[in-house]
Design goal:
There is one protein chain. The chain is an alpha+beta fold. It is built from ten helices and 13 strands. Strands 3-2-1-6-5-4 form a six-stranded antiparallel β-sheet, sandwiched between helices. It has a five-stranded mixed β-sheet with strand order 8-10-11-13-12, covered by helices on one side. Bound molecules: adenosine-5'-diphosphate. Adenosine-5'-diphosphate binds at residues 299-300, 303, 327, 329-330, 332, 340, 345-348, 356-361, 385.
Length: 401
């Protein structure tokens, strides 16, 4: 009895420490990591996780878990209907189960992915401003059964998590939105100047055509800025799911070359593919990886010179697969390299290459990091640039053609 009381007291002490801790950061990832670790600790469970609810897709996405790595987690979704977490969201109530496998609401897919069966579980709703934003779950009590005390302790943590998520989201959004609005000012100012000039009676027909051409390209840029911005906001908030499959990298490179060939020919640029034989299969979200390669390839053409070339390469080392996009273009000054993956950062502003948004590389980096990989860049001014995508390697080998 005395032992239980001491344990409970330790738990409450831990909760107070956590509350203090949570108030000290607005970084959502760090916050949620702390909450799940604390949840597993105070309830004496094997693992804990937070799933966030996306009301567009009516699914729950894993946001953090003590027992899942980032790439696996990103590919896992739990449906609202037919899952315990979904039940918690729909009923706004917590659940405490001793034998999960026998529960008709149990959604076994996650167990199959992690390879660890769930026996017991507590799930509490995360409610902020009267809306359920997700579920905090503790899995598999290490000794004995989950108690009412464990459930109420998790309830307190869940309430803190909900407030922290709300605050961090508001902070993140206001930051990104203010940057976006700032970036909108330049194209909007040039559109406004252009319309003013068009109304001037002294403009010649040629000048008017030139102005209309500028309006058209600025509008296209605003359009692509808006879609890239939404893309990036979704990636940054962890709402994008990666659907991993196993595929042949060389085929993907040829596909990307075909898509960009006519643009390259217009600029008199040659694209070559240099891929090693017997590459391992790539395990990734094929469409998302294609988006990254196309973005790098489009930059390699856009920032190249007439009669230049681009080499699309792929190779594999023991632990990773590397895809490179190398060009013979303008190159990037050394002092610009550390900023290249920052949002809205552009080196060649106004050097003829208009139409950029400065968001492409940030999106690429988010996608590659979401796969557990990284991006690298090497460049020499006036000689060319090489971007590399380095992804953790899977075991299987591609058959030789
Ligand atoms: P953008 O839409 O402006 O191309 P990105 O995020 O894709 O945005 O690239 C950021 C900046 O990095 C570009 O504006 C350009 O100045 C520079 N850059 C990207 N790729 C290359 C390249 N292959 N060669 C030279 N400069 C590049």
């Amino acid at each position: 009895m005395a032992e239980i009381k001491t344990e409970r007291l330790d738990g409450y002490r831990r909760l107070i420490e956590i509350a203090r801790d949570l108030a000290s950061t607005l970084d959502l990832d760090i916050l949620l990591q702390r909450i799940v670790r604390a949840a597993a600790e105070v309830s004496g469970s094997e693992a804990a996780s937070i799933l966030l609810y996306d009301n567009l897709t009516r699914q729950l996405n894993f946001q953090v878990a003590t027992n899942l790595d980032e790439p696996t987690m990103r590919g896992l979704v739990v449906p609202l209907e037919g899952s315990i977490a979904g039940w918690v969201v729909l009923n706004r109530k917590s659940v405490r189960l001793t034998n999960v496998q026998e529960d008709p609401r149990f959604f076994g897919h996650v167990d199959r992915m992690t390879g660890r069966p769930t026996q017991s579980l507590i799930g509490v709703p995360l409610i902020t401003k009267n809306k359920v934003v997700g579920v905090l779950e503790a899995l598999n009590k290490e000794r004995g059964k989950f108690t009412e005390g464990d459930e109420s302790m998790l309830g307190v943590l869940g309430a803190q998590a909900a407030v922290a998520i709300e605050n961090a989201r508001l902070f993140q959004q206001s930051d990104l939105i203010s940057e976006f609005v700032h970036e909108l000012r330049t194209p909007l100012a040039s559109l406004s100047t252009a319309t003013y000039l068009l109304l001037r009676p002294e403009m010649s027909r040629d000048q008017q055509e030139q102005i209309i051409h500028n309006i058209h390209s600025e509008t296209l840029r605003l359009n692509s800025m808006a879609s890239s911005f939404l893309d990036l906001a979704r990636l940054e908030s962890g709402r994008v799911q990666f659907r991993k499959t196993s595929f042949n990298i060389t085929d993907l490179l040829f596909e990307c070359k075909d898509i960009m060939n006519s643009k390259a020919e217009d600029d008199r640029i040659q694209i070559r593919i240099e891929a090693s034989e017997r590459l391992p299969f790539c395990e990734a979200d094929r469409d998302k990886l294609k988006q990254v390669i196309l973005n790098l390839l489009s930059n390699a053409i856009k920032y190249n010179r007439p009669n230049g070339s681009v080499i699309l390469g792929a190779g594999a080392a023991e632990t990773n697969t590397c895809i490179t996009v190398q060009d013979t273009g303008l190159g990037i000054p050394e002092e610009a390299l550390p900023h290249l993956f920052e949002k809205f950062y552009r080196v060649h502003d106004g050097e003829g290459a208009t139409g950029g948004t400065g968001l492409g590389l940030s999106i690429c980096k988010q996608i590659v990091q979401g796969h557990g990989g990284r991006m690298e860049v090497k460049s020499k001014l006036g000689v060319g640039t090489a971007f590399s995508i380095i992804l953790p390697r899977s075991g299987k080998t591609q058959p030789t053609p």
